[in-house]
Write a structure and sequence with these properties.
The structure holds three protein chains of three kinds. Helices cover 74% and strands 0% of the residues of chain B. By secondary structure, chain B is mainly α. Chain B has one domain: MetI-like (MetI-like fold). In chain B, α1 packs across α4 (104-139), α1 (31-67) packs across α7 (202-210) and α1 runs parallel beside α8 (219-245). Chain B is elongated, with a radius of gyration of 22 Å. Chain C is of the alpha/beta class. Chain C has helices at 23-29, 62-70, 93-102, 120-130, 137-150, 167-179, 197-214, 225-231, 249-254, 259-267, 306-310, 326-329; strands at 6-18, 35-47, 51-55, 77-82, 85-86, 103-106, 185-189, 217-222, 234-239, 242-248, 316-318, 321-323. Chain C is globular and about 70 Å long. Classes of the chains: A alpha/beta, B mainly alpha, C alpha/beta. Chains in contact: A-C, B-C.
Chain lengths: 332, 251, 344
């Protein structure tokens, strides 16, 4: 069992407001192994982007980490002073955000931005840094890199810009990349190219990726494992193939069922009635108890932690060992 | 009022009495009463001027933003021309023209209205520009497109949908402008081209009192000045409150 | 049974936008006028009761077509004929009103499509008031309550403001507004693209139910092929302002003919195929201001040759599918792959 590269333990993120303290992330734990792609999937408000932001140390006040720890390669990073965190950011952890348009400074050529990033983290002369930048551009598949390195961001199309952003993220060869909705703003045919690029980089450099998205299809194609988030909690985590084929948690089941797919019968999509509770309106016990088709009394009183559930882990009382025999009969 | 009571200091100083709490001016007029009347006149002139400027500016701004094309160009060029004149200069110009056209007695009657018009014509451009910019943005939003698809009359769209959504920043500008308008009126009256001395406004009061500042009768100028400052502060706070009250998200 | 009537007929529709720099700048830089051909010759027909989908990536012109159909834009050339009448030809608002009543639109952005300062009941009542469809205030209130219930909201929601609702609920309000005038035809411009997946399922189900209950006809615009698969009877694939393939949903997904359609179907990240290794087709959608000559897809097409660079292909009927492709016409394509089993 490989020592995990990133370990998040009992992370809590709070948001103090005038009306009281709201809990945005409520005690989540997971790990990412070196070279692994972990998908974090969930709907808006579930807290997936927030988790990524917290790991990379870019939480905006008044949001704050109120509990738990984050360790990178054995070293604790959630309580570092900002200067130390700044050095880690980029060098050890890279980031790719959703909108390539705003991730790049429109006033500087991409060459300059690349060189600046490289020289911030690696001790290279300007000429060496430029060579490195060219190599990076070629690696992310930008044709004619010698000419394009001196172009401005607006001279690139959306897909090309995202490739540049990826180049920036891997410039210092980080061990972990946090990718927050990297393909959502792109056309479908370009999405496929970017996914292929990320997978190739992951393989060639041994970089681990935390892929945050709401698009299960992207996760299915790219990730090894996936964590499903709901209202600030992880409700299920496990191997992608397993979760896609046999989702255990009722929310994951509902989510999988509501995704329209091509092929098979065209029938009414299964839907989950209601909506994810907003911060401050999260019920006691299991956060999904208001919408769960299999809710029991216990679900309203006690909050389940992740329990082993035949191949994955699911935070659901259905998988409490006491109920297991009944569960097997249910699954059939 | 009697000349015998001229130049009395405020009540709490030697020589003053409580008949004239804030003292009297050089002609024996009670400063407190003068301030009360003067504030009323200042507010009157200021508010009407801003209202008129709002009317002109918002209408032209909406027209320019909604119609676009030639209408927009014409209105904006007129606005540019107006901007090359400073407010005071414009007011002086209008005032001078009107004085030249009318006989003496008619002048003092309509002086306040001429002043209102002059101030309004100086201030309308900022409303027009702001409204036009906001209109250009809102126009392409989908709720406006939805109204067009339904077949709502364009006037109804502009007044019912567009106007409520662009008016917010305007109200804030308007209240700041109210303060400015009062100040402009005061300045103009101070310079002698605003209201005649028979109609006291805070500006004329300050002007009158100015001559006596150095001879020691400070209360004739200072009290109106303080009141002017407090008036402007309250108007600004009112503006902030109005803007928040109009925001449905904060209800 | 009689053939369902043709409700919408779009013929040789063109729409261009002038995107030149302002006159002075243009002269100074010596540049020519630039025109963006958003819609470059679209023709299709829709029958009453069906759902016709327009699918394509960004810049293909599908949103522009939606706005042309509903009358927000006037065509540069060509005709949009709804129920036998051309909306663009009707000069006055009064003349256009009866047509507008029957033809409504649902927009993509649930946050921008409702006036943030109006109460929900006023938003929904607007079509009723504009077309004077109800006689009294009481009748108006009742109709608004009916509409709210129809979209599975509660009548008390009428007193609230849009910002008090979630994205999915706002889309329901948009739908209620669109249904207020009892239309026959709804243009739906990416109605669920801004919504979460589980909310999307609710809205799509609602739309299907409403279609059945009220006999509606949908022109459904989307970039999401899976949603289109679920919702539509016939599909038109657009690329750079042109229709490259029109087919029934079952034929399109089972046997896509145009290389671009095949590319789209190939590249959708798919849940079924976990960990799939594939090399996606390269290239990106070209700039619509300077489209490639001839067939606009030829730079990315694996089957392109000389003729494709010179000559623009027209739609031809190939076994029930309309395709605009020289390679298909000349039978040069390998056997159309069966993409999926389509069962009804």
């Amino acid at each position: 069992m490989l020592e995990p590269l990133l370990r998040v333990e009992n992370l809590r993120i709070e948001l103090p407001t005038r009306r009281g303290v709201l809990t945005a992330i409520d005690d989540i734990s997971f790990a990412i192994a070196p070279g692994e792609v972990l998908g974090v999937v969930g709907e808006s408000g579930a807290g997936k982007s927030l988790t990524g932001t917290a790991i990379i140390g870019l939480l905006e006040p008044p949001l704050r980490i109120a509990g738990g720890r984050i360790t990178l390669a054995g070293r604790r990073i959630d309580n570092l002073p900002s200067e130390a965190m700044r050095r880690i950011r980029g060098r050890e952890i890279g980031a790719i955000f959703q909108d390539p348009l705003t991730s790049l400074n429109p006033l500087y050529t991409i060459g300059r931005q690349l060189v600046e990033t490289i020289r911030t983290h690696l001790d290279l002369s300007p000429a060496a840094a430029r060579d490195q930048a060219l190599a990076l551009l070629r690696e992310v598949g930008i044709a004619g890199a010698e000419a394009r390195i001196d172009h401005y961001p607006h001279q690139f199309s959306g897909g090309m810009r995202q490739r540049v952003v990826i180049a920036l993220a891997i410039a210092a060869n980080p061990r972990l990349i946090i990718a927050d909705e990297p393909t959502t703003a792109l056309d479908v045919s370009i999405q496929a190219q970017i996914i292929a690029l990320l997978k190739r980089l992951c393989r060639d450099h041994g970089t681990a990726i935390m892929l945050v998205t709401h698009d299960m299809g992207v996760i299915a194609e790219t990730a090894h494992r996936v964590a499903v988030m709901y209202a600030g909690r992880i409700v299920e985590i496990g191997a992608v193939a397993e979760i896609v084929a046999h989702p255990r948690h009722p929310y994951t089941r509902g989510l999988m069922d509501s995704i329209p797919r091509i092929g098979g019968r065209r029938q009414r999509l299964r839907q989950i009635d209601g909506a994810m509770p907003r911060l401050g309106a999260i019920p006691a016990g299991c956060p999904f108890n208001q919408r769960c088709p299999e809710v029991a009394d216990r679900c309203r009183r006690q909050r389940p932690d992740l329990l082993p559930a035949a191949g994955t882990e699911a935070a659901c009382w259905l998988y409490d060992k006491v109920l297991l025999p009944a569960q097997e009969a249910f699954d059939g | 009022m009697s000349l015998l009571d001229a130049s009395n200091p405020p009540a709490w100083l030697d020589g003053g009495s409580w008949t004239y709490p804030l003292g009297t001016d050089n002609q024996g007029r009670d400063v407190l009463s003068a301030i009360l009347y003067g504030s009323r006149l200042s507010l009157f002139v200021g508010s009407l001027a801003v209202l008129l400027a709002l009317l002109i500016g918002v209408t032209l701004g909406l027209l320019a933003g909604w119609c676009g094309g030639l209408t927009d160009t014409i209105i904006m060029r007129i606005a540019d021309v107006k901007l090359s004149f400073p407010a005071i200069l414009l007011a002086l110009l209008i005032d001078g023209v009107v004085r030249g056209m009318l006989p003496r007695d008619a002048q003092s009657e309509i002086a306040s209205y001429v002043l209102i018009a002059a101030i309004a014509l100086s201030f309308w451009v900022q409303y027009a520009r702001t409204v036009r910019a906001l209109t250009l943005v809102e126009r392409n939003k989908e709720y406006i497109q939805a109204a067009r698809v339904i077949g709502v009359h364009p006037a109804k769209i502009v007044l019912g949908h567009l106007l409520p959504n662009v008016i917010g920043p305007i109200l804030v500008i308007a209240t700041i402008n109210l303060a400015l308008a009062i100040l402009t009126e005061a300045t103009l009256s101070f310079l002698g081209v605003g209201l005649p001395p028979t109609q006291p406004s805070l500006g004329t009061l300050i002007r009158n009192g100015n001559d006596y500042l150095f001879s020691g009768d400070w209360w004739i100028s200072i009290f109106p000045g303080v009141v002017l400052a407090v008036l402007i502060l309250s108007v600004n706070l009112l503006g902030d409150w109005l803007r928040d009250a109009f925001n449905p998200k904060l209800r | 049974m009689a053939e369902p009537e043709t409700l919408l007929h779009v013929e040789e529709l063109h729409r261009s936008f002038d995107v030149s720099l302002p006159a002075i700048e243009r002269l100074m830089r010596g540049k020519k006028r630039a025109t963006l051909k958003a819609v470059d010759g679209i023709s299709f027909t829709m029958r009453r009761g069906e759902t016709f989908a327009l699918v394509g990536e960004s810049g293909c012109g599908k949103s522009t077509v939606a706005r042309l159909v509903v009358g927000l834009y006037r065509p540069t050339s060509g005709r949009v004929v709804f129920a036998g009448q051309e909306l663009a030809r009707l000069k006055s608002r009064k003349a256009a009103a009866p047509l507008r009543r029957r033809l409504q639109m649902i927009f993509q952005d649930p946050y921008a499509s409702l006036n943030p300062r109006w109460q929900v009941k006023r938003i929904i009542a607007e079509p009723l008031r504009t077309h004077r469809l109800v006689a009294s205030e009481a009748a108006l209130r009742q109709r608004v309550a009916e509409l709210l219930l129809q979209v599975r909201l509660s009548p008390v929601d009428g007193d609230k403001f849009p910002h008090e609702f979630s994205g999915g609920q706002r889309q329901r309000i948009s739908i209620a507004r669109a249904l207020a005038s009892n239309p026959e035809f709804l243009v739906c411009d990416e109605p669920t693209s801004a919504l979460d997946v589980s909310v999307q399922a609710q809205i799509l189900n609602l739309m299907k139910d409403l279609q059945r209950q009220l006999g509606l006809t949908y022109l459904f615009i989307s970039h999401n092929l899976a949603v289109i698969y679920q919702m539509s009877d016939r599909v038109g694939v657009m690329y750079l302002g042109r229709l490259v393939e029109i087919a029934s949903a079952e034929r399109l997904f089972a046997a896509p003919r145009h290389p671009y359609t095949q590319l789209l179907l190939d590249t959708i990240p798919s849940i079924e195929i976990t960990g799939r290794e594939r090399e996606p087709v390269g290239g990106e959608v070209p700039n619509p201001i300077n489209p490639p000559p001839g067939c606009s897809f030829h730079p990315r097409c694996p089957f392109a040759y000389e003729r494709c660079r010179r000559e623009r292909p027209e739609l031809i009927d190939v076994g029930g599918t309309l395709v605009a492709c020289h390679a298909v016409e000349e039978d040069r394509l390998p056997q159309a792959r069966a993409y999926t089993e389509y069962e009804t």
